Amino acid sequence: MLNVCVCVCVCVCVCVCVQALLTFERKIFRRMYGPKMKMENGKSRTNRELVEMSKGENIVKWIKGQRINWLGHLERMEEDRMP
Known about the structure:
83 residues, single chain, 2 strands
């Protein structure tokens, strides 16, 4: 029973962290791309527009790719050089 609780807590924590990263990324994209200019009032861009502008790439995919690169680096290292 304890293992199930730990697994659920870890999964929930990971989901919350991923969601927080994606929210932060959208906040930064909104700052970088600025508002949509239609007439005189600027409207904020929607999440869908931000995803389209970033061509589907996001920070979570990048972090996972970097982790895989690091794992490959560790696999190639000699045993006595392990960090």
